[in-house]
Automatic annotation (TrEMBL), chains A, B, C, D:
Lineage: Bacteria, Pseudomonadati, Pseudomonadota, Gammaproteobacteria, Nevskiales
Domain HTH tetR-type residues, every copy: 14-74
PANTHER family in UniProt: HTH-TYPE TRANSCRIPTIONAL REGULATOR PKSA, HTH-TYPE TRANSCRIPTIONAL REGULATOR RUTR
Tree of life domain: Bacteria
The protein's name in its UniProt record: TetR/AcrR family transcriptional regulator
Length: 209, 209, 209, 209
DNA sequence: CATGAATGAGAATTCATTCAT
DNA sequence: TATGAATGAATTCTCATTCAT
C-alpha cells in the first residue's frame, strides 16, 4: 500500500465519474444505447475516450451504471412512497403518479429502460404493430362504454395500458417463468382479470390524492 | 418470356421466401433485430446471402415482413373476437387471453415486437431495473391485500401488468402526445386510475369464459 | 459437323444479338457502363440473363460490341465524307459537323465513349474542375476579344474546345507517347499552336457548306 | 482538454492526411476512382482502413480532395498567367503550355479528371473508338496539307485536339445546354469553325514565348 | 495520469457468372 | 435451347477498445 489518495484527487475522480455518467445519460436520452458511442460520450463529457475506460470497463458497463444512476433516484422516491403513510390504494396511486409525472417531464431517458431504437423502418413497424393491437382494444372498449358495461374512461390511455400490461407481463422480466401448462393458465387468467377489472370498475377516483 | 414457370419452380420460389422468413423468425426470436444478421439468416435458411436479397430489398424489410407475418395471424384472431358475439367484457377477456395464450406457447418472437435486445449485460440491467420497479409495486400490493383493501390476486402478475401499463402508456406509440401540462395531467390521472382500479376491484371473474 | 443451322435459326440468332445490343445501347446511354448490368440489359431485351451469355462472353465484351456497333455507323459516315468530294477544309468541316449534329440529336451514347459516370459527388468534382479550367480560358478569350486580338467568337464553345483539345491530346489514346523531353516539347508546342490558331484566325467561315 | 498536442503529434496528423492523399493519388493515377479502394489506399499508405475514415468522411470525399489538391496548384498557376502581363494570345499560349507541360511531366493523375477507367477491355474499346475517329481526321488533314490548303502541322496532335475539342464541347460540363434546335446549330457551327480555323491558319507562332 | 490516434473485426449490400431444370 | 435461381467474392463503412506518447 503506497500513498493514500489525497482528498483532492478523490474528488476529481468522483467528479469525472459523474461527468461521464451525466454525458452518457444525455446521449442515451437522445439516441438509446446504440447512440451512446464512447466517442460521443467522451466528447460530451469533455474528455478523451481513454478516460472513459479508466472509470468503466466497457461500454456496456457504462450504460448499466448510467441506467442505474438514473433510476436510482426514482426508486428512492418510490420506496419512500411505498413505506410512507396512507392506505395502500393511496400509495399505489402516488407511486404510479410519481413515476409517470417525472417521466413525462423528463428527457426521455425512460425509453432506454424499455426498448432500443433501431433503424427507422424497424421502429416504424413495431409502432404500427402496437397501434393495431391497441386499435382492437379501443374498439372493444368503446363498444363496452356505449353499452354501459364499462364506465366512461380515456380509451387511448386504457388501451395503451392494456397493451403494455399484457406484453410486459408476458415477456418482461417480471413474468413468472411459466413453463408448465398449468402455470401458463394461471398467468393468463391473472393478466386477463387484471385488464378486465381495470376497465370495468367505476372510476371512483379512489386513491386519488 | 419463353417458358412458363413450372409448378415445381413456383413452389420452390414460394418455399424460399417462407424459408427465409422462418429463418429470420428463428433468429429474431433468439436475438432480436440485431441478431438477425443477413449471413446468419442465410445460413439458417441454408442458402447464400445473395438469395436473401432476391426476396427482400434490405435487412430492415425482411425484419418488417417477418414481424408482419407473425403478427398478422394474431390480429386476424383478435379482430374476429372484437367483432364477434358476447359482451364487451367477455370479448376483452377473450382478446387478451387469446394473445397471451398464444404468445406463451410460441417461440418468444413477441419479444421482438417490444424490445430490441442489446448486449447481454445491457439487457440484464434493463431487466433488473424493471424488477426493482416491480418490487415496489408488489410490496404495496401485498400490504393492501393484507389490509383487506385489495382483493387477493397474483401480485407478480399484477405488478408486471402495472409496470407494463405505465411504461407503455408513457413511452409507447400508443401514448397520446402529451405536450401541454394539462394533457400530461390528464394522462397521468388516466394511468393511475387504470392501475388502481385494476387491483382494487374484486376478482369477480366477470368476463371469464 | 452435324446439322446446318436453318436460315430461320440463323435469323433468330442474329435477331437476339441485335436485340441485346440495342438493349445494352439504351442502358449505356442512360447510365454508362456501370449502369449496364446484365440483368438490366436482359430485362430490357426481354430475355433471360443466361441468353446474354450465349451471345457474349462477358459483360465487358457486350459493352465493347455495343460501343463498336454504335460508333460503326458514325465511322462509316465520317469515312464517306473524308473520301468524298470537296476541299479538305470543306470535308473537315463536314466531318466535324456530321458527328456533332448527330451526337447532339442522339441519346447521349457518346458519353460512354469518353467518361464513365461515378458517384454523384465524384462526377460533380470532375465537372467543377473542368469548369474552373474553362473559366480561366474564357477570361483570357474575353480580354483578347475586347483588345481586338481575337475575332468575336462564342467563348463558351471555344473554351470547351480548348479544354477538350489539350486534355485529349495529353491523355487520350491519340496522344503520341511522349517519353523524351524533346517529344514532350514538340507535343506541347503543337497543342498550344493549335489552340492559339483556333481562336486567333478570323471566323471567315471557310469550309462552311 | 488537458494536454496540448505536441508539435510532433501535429506533424504526424498532417503527415497522415498527406500520406493518405498521396496514396490515393497513386491509386487514382493507376486505376482511377474505381481502383481507389479504401483497402488499397490504406495498404498503400501503410495504415488501417479505419484510419482513412478519421480523415475523410467517405471514399468519394477522399477522391474529391485528392483531385482538388492536385488541380489546385494548376489552377493557381493558370490564374496567375491569365491575370499576368502580355497579350491575350501570349497568355493563352502560356496557359495551355503550362498545364500541358506539367501534365506531361506528372504521374498520369490528369487522367482521373477526365475519364473513369473501367475494365481493361472496356478502356481498350474506348481507346480504339477514339483512335478511329482520329484516323479519319488525320486523313483529311494530310490531304489538306498535301494540297496546300492547310499549313504543315503535327497531324497527330491536331487530330487529337480536334477529337478532344468536339467531344468535350459536346458532352463535357462546359457544353452549353443546347436543347433547342437553334442552339444546337449555333454550337455545332462554333465547334466546326473552331476546328477549321485551328488547322487552317498559318502556324506563325504568334503567342509563342 | 490523460490523450486520442490507431486498429481491425464485422455487417450490409451488389452483381457478374454459372448451371440445374 | 432458354431460363432465372443461386452463388459468393468484393467493397464500404462503423466503432469498441488499446496503447504509445
Amino acid at each position: 500500500m503506497a500513498y493514500r489518495r489525497s482528498a483532492l484527487m478523490q474528488e476529481r475522480l468522483a467528479d469525472n465519474r459523474e461527468r461521464i455518467l451525466a454525458a452518457a445519460r444525455r446521449r442515451i436520452a437522445a439516441q438509446g444505447y446504440r447512440g451512446m458511442q464512447i466517442a460521443a460520450v467522451a466528447a460530451e463529457a469533455g474528455m478523451s475516450t481513454g478516460m472513459i475506460y479508466r472509470y468503466f470497463r466497457s461500454k456496456a458497463e457504462l450504460f448499466v451504471e448510467a441506467l442505474s444512476a438514473a433510476i436510482g433516484q426514482e426508486l428512492k422516491l418510490l420506496n419512500a412512497i411505498a413505506d410512507g403513510p396512507g392506505s395502500a390504494r393511496q400509495r399505489l396511486y402516488a407511486a404510479v403518479e410519481c413515476f409517470t409525472r417525472r417521466a413525462l417531464a423528463g428527457p426521455g431517458l425512460a425509453y432506454a429502460f424499455i426498448a432500443e431504437p433501431a433503424e427507422a423502418e424497424v421502429d416504424a413497424a413495431r409502432i404500427e404493430v402496437r397501434q393495431r393491437l391497441g386499435d382492437v382494444i379501443k374498439r372493444i372498449l368503446r363498444q363496452g362504454i356505449d353499452a354501459g358495461e364499462f364506465p366512461p374512461q380515456d380509451v387511448d390511455a386504457s388501451a395503451a395500458c392494456i397493451v403494455g400490461a399484457y406484453t410486459e407481463a408476458l415477456i418482461g422480466p417480471l413474468a413468472p417463468r411459466a413453463e408448465r401448462v398449468k402455470d401458463r393458465d394461471r398467468l393468463t387468467r391473472a393478466i386477463c382479470d387484471f385488464c378486465v377489472r381495470a376497465v370495468s370498475a367505476p372510476a371512483d377516483g379512489r386513491g386519488r390524492p
